[in-house]
Amino acid sequence: MSSRGSRDARTRFAQLSAGAVLVVIALEYGLTSASAAASALDAPTLASARAWEFERHTAVPQSEGDGARVRRCVGGSFRDYLNPLLLFDHFQVRPPAAFPPHPHRGQCLVTYMLTGGFEHRDSRGNVGTVLTGGVQFMNAARGIVHSETPAVAGMSNDGIQLWINLAAERKRDAPVYGKYVSKQFPELALGDGIHVRLVLGTLYAEGELHTSPLESVLAEAGFKHVSFFDVSLDRGRAFDFRVPVESHALAYVLRGSVTTLKPQEGTLSGEVDSFGARAEAHDCLFFDSSPEWKSQHPTVPCSMEPENDHNAGEVPSCRTITFANPEAEAARILLFTAAPLDEPMLRYGPFVYTHKLELGQWIREY
């Protein structure tokens, strides 16, 4: 998504030496002013013994691309990396603002449209537009140049963009692009006042295993245990988010207020009447992995699917983080987790690599 200026990136980079390209990337992607990109809040004081401890950051609007605005949870000065998540942006783009041609390498991009639409064009000839509720997936792998332009005039085109780091062995794969329309994604009503949209991952509910249409392309890219849910909660309702013990998790509050609860026994779902510390709209909540958690607390299987020959012995242990709405206004939150990578992560602007020697080589190839 990141791009500054409107000149074609490939043309400009081709005219520069590798050393000069490094300077251009630094200027293009604001690497010299990252500390001014966002403001941070102290972690809240928890009001309940049942509340999870988490780190909180309020994502404030900042300029990006050519006239666009984003709220950044991951990829800025507050939290640079939430392994394997490189970037989490809530973008708001009103024409003529856009993201002109810019490169990516070494990561996958997932763009989830909240309102309006986005048009994608890339150096491999792919062209696609997705509207509200749709998703664009781009595996940049060994390198691609693309642009993103708002598709609906006269309004703000809003959405979420994720950058997910690829394992070193997959960074040399061929780039892949795909688009998915809103009706392809499962929408579940988990009781009265609890609605879940399954953007990435799987969820066992109502006696059935529900699967995102991107599950196969994520598996082909080498990702494991990826979940990205769009959850709406009415007053006093709660949702259990199961996170593998070894994984980090992120929650972003789109609307209303939420609080986190730690179930005393098993899982907690449905109606609640006891709340902990609250997070408000545009707050980012970070739940870091806890290797010691398994020995200190009971865990649950990550899947609620009944054990059978298909999944026996393959389901990791999870901690359950319960999100509840303490207010009269309906709350909407986005939840993400994925299995971390056990390898170094280095990046310079849009290039994500594993070893220092790769950067110069990648720029020469580009």
Description:
The protein has 366 residues and is mainly beta. The strands form 6 sheets. It has a 7-stranded antiparallel beta sheet with strand order 1-23-19-26-17-14-13, with no helix packed on it. Strands 2-3-4-11-6-9-12 form a 7-stranded antiparallel beta sheet, with no helix packed on it.
Q: Any chance you could write out the topology, listing elements then pairs?
A:
Blueprint (H helix, E strand, L loop, with lengths): L8 H6 L3 H11 L26 E4 L2 E4 L3 E7 L10 E9 L5 E6 L2 E9 L1 E6 L4 E5 L3 E5 L4 E7 L6 E9 L10 E5 L6 E3 L4 E7 L1 E4 L2 E4 L3 H6 L6 E7 L3 E8 L3 E8 L2 E4 L8 E2 L6 E2 L3 E5 L5 H4 L3 E2 L15 E8 L6 E8 L7 E3 L2 E3 L2 H10 L1
Antiparallel strand pairs: 1-23, 2-3, 3-4, 4-11, 5-10, 6-9, 6-11, 7-8, 7-10, 9-12, 13-14, 14-17, 15-16, 17-26, 18-21, 18-25, 19-23, 19-26, 20-22, 20-25, 24-25, 27-28
